[in-house]
Design brief:
The protein is mostly helical. The protein contains 17 helices and no strands. Helices cover 74% and strands 0% of the residues. The longest helix is centred in the N-terminal third of the chain and has 37 residues.
Length: 480
């Protein structure tokens, strides 16, 4: 086996596994809406609905590109092949940043849910404030180990764990909705369709700012594209995996968040309790059904967070591997002689996640949820820019390339996607935040992208070398 080649041994379900694992719907449904409610109020499901529309519009471009290309570098290869190597490097660097910051998000989520599960079981009560960091560090170490074993085993395990927890959440959602509809809900709560209207206190801007946490919940639907060189039938399987994951996520998030807000209550007290919940479906399961199902969902959310962390390491390491391979960086483009995985790239990404969390905690005394929320915003803002770049590349390739690859009327789909992403980014930076803690997040996102731009601008010979490699790469040749 070549030291610079990945093993092609995954099928469509294993590709779906990595996308679902990185999207982590059971983790996202339990902890991401709390970040949204502070901006959108009771309209959390409306924010998630906006994110759903945006993701489905953007998925069009990814699906079309994956029908022609299969490359471990994902957007690095896609954007590089359609708009040029310089923009490809910036897009790849951006997605590495997203996956790395999401590694911080998910390691902290695993720590929060894991520590909460240990507390509920009575194994570790009266926990110190650093308990989520300890559990999160253990999850990171375990994820690193799993990431360097054959990806086939890891993706199967992730899909199984996630499926069980999603099923528990869906059962709980149905029970909660029935009790709300029949008047048997705690605190007199009932079905309230105002969750799909814009509150005066939030306004249009608040709903779109809250949509960032919706995009955060979807982030990863495209992760299967990094397995293009490890999937046996990538031009069909990767497209199906991405589109199927995005459609499922849309239905799941909108329905579950709507029931969550109704279950907690749409009044001020309910919204406050919603924002302070450590596990939304876990708390609702305990309140509406029994403590046993709440404990199971909390455990499932912890496992889901771990699976998402693993998927972040897998996705970022494949991107790093692909870019290093084209740049001629031998250490980072080496794969394990037995497992066929990019072990050195995985070590670098794991170390970066650990470093960010440690510095963030020690330098600014931030706790686990602060790092979770802050990393989520940074990673998502970077991701939205990457999605924009990929969509521009898709438009150029599909509609203005050497030949048209789709009916011209379809161009409206990615154009609407660009509009949706542009509005979301704008609403998150305008008006410019006054608090430094909020201002530093878009600044950090911009700095990460700027580093990539400056690096490639200072290395014109490297850009040429990468362009030559992309043109010769058989994984970026069109399907016959």
């Amino acid at each position: 086996m070549s030291e610079r080649s990945l093993v092609k041994n995954l099928n469509v379900w294993e590709a779906i596994g990595i996308s679902v694992a990185l999207m982590a719907p059971s983790m996202a449904a339990n902890i991401n809406p709390q970040g949204s409610v502070g901006h959108s109020g009771r309209a959390v499901p409306l924010s998630f609905g906006i994110a759903t529309v945006g993701v489905l519009l953007i998925a069009y471009g990814f699906v079309r590109l994956c029908q022609h290309f299969n490359h471990a570098g994902s957007v690095y290869g896609f954007v590089g092949a359609t708009t040029g190597p310089r923009s490809g490097v910036v897009a790849g660097w951006g997605l590495i940043g997203t996956y790395t910051f999401y590694g911080c998000v998910t390691s902290m989520a695993a720590g929060i849910f894991g520590a909460d599960f240990l507390n509920k079981l009575g194994i570790w009560k009266h926990q110190p404030t650093w308990s989520p960091f300890l559990v999160g560090a253990f999850a990171l170490a375990l994820a690193y180990w799993v990431a360097i074993v054959p990806a086939r085993n890891g993706t199967r395990m992730l899909l199984s764990f996630e499926g069980i927890t999603v099923l528990l959440i869906l059962v709980t959602t149905v029970v909660v909705f029935i009790k709300l509809a029949t008047g048997h809900a705690p605190n007199g709560n009932h079905v309230d369709w105002s969750v799909f209207s814009i509150p005066k206190s939030a306004g249009f801007n608040g709903v779109f700012v809250g949509a960032v946490f919706g995009f955060l919940s979807f982030a990863g639907f495209e992760a299967s594209s990094t397995l293009g060189e490890e999937t046996t039938n990538p031009r069909k399987d990767i497209s199906r995996a991405m589109l199927g994951t995005a459609i499922f996520g849309g239905f799941f998030f909108v329905i579950v968040t709507a029931v969550e807000v109704m279950g907690f209550g749409t009044n001020d007290a309910g919204i406050k309790a919603f924002g302070g919940s450590g596990s939304l479906m876990g708390d609702l399961g305990t309140s509406f059904i029994g403590s046993w199902i709440g404990t199971l969902i909390s455990l499932g959310a912890a496992v889901s967070a771990f699976g998402c962390l693993l998927a972040c390491l897998v996705g970022a390491s494949r991107l790093t591997f692909a870019m290093a391979r084209d740049a001629g960086h031998a250490p980072l483009s080496m794969v394990h002689s037995k497992n066929g995985t990019p072990v050195n790239a995985t070590r670098v990404i794991t170390g970066a996640v650990l470093l960010i969390v440690v510095v963030w905690h020690l330098a600014w005394n931030k706790q686990a949820f602060d790092i979770f929320a802050g990393s989520g915003v940074i990673g998502t803002l970077i991701l939205l820019v990457v999605y924009l770049m990929a969509t521009f590349g898709a438009i150029r390739f599909i509609f203005f390339g050497s030949k048209k690859r789709a009916a011209m009327w379809e161009i409206i789909i990615p154009i609407l996607g660009i509009g949706m992403l542009g509005i979301t980014v704008w609403e998150n930076i305008h008006p410019w935040p006054t608090a430094w803690s909020a201002r530093i997040l878009p600044i950090a996102s911009a700095i990460w992208l700027l580093v990539g731009v400056l690096f490639i601008a200072a290395k014109p010979s490297l850009a040429k070398k990468l362009g030559d490699q992309l043109r010769r790469d058989e994984n970026l040749s069109e399907a016959l």
